[in-house]
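Q: Here's a chain of 122 amino acids. Please give me its 3D structure as tokens.
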Amino acid sequence: QLQASGGGLVQAGGSLRLSCAASGRTFSRAAMGWFRQAPGKEREFVAVITWSGGRTVYADPVKGRFTISRDNAKNTVYLQMNSLKLEDTAVYYCAADLGGGLPVRGSSYDYWGQGTLVTVSS
């Protein structure tokens, strides 16, 4: 029900925009988050946006470089990633929390996408 896309290979300093499209139901009232998991590491929180888009929270490593946004008419959430670094290499997952709020814990989320791989090269 959540399909993440937009990953790929990019050089350090470059940009990518990830998309997460929802299908099968509407997530217009859900908080939407992005997480990532690098090789050999645990999954970590990246960003979250409220259902209205009025509030966002970012993990410290991505503040000022990543921007989360959403288009409820399209049932899609985005993650614009600029100034990418080698350490941003990971599989990125989108997730939906039907309870709303601004959850930063993965356990709070009800639905998960399949992930899209972002590889940043030097």
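Q: Can you summarize the key feature?
A: The radius of gyration is 13 Å.
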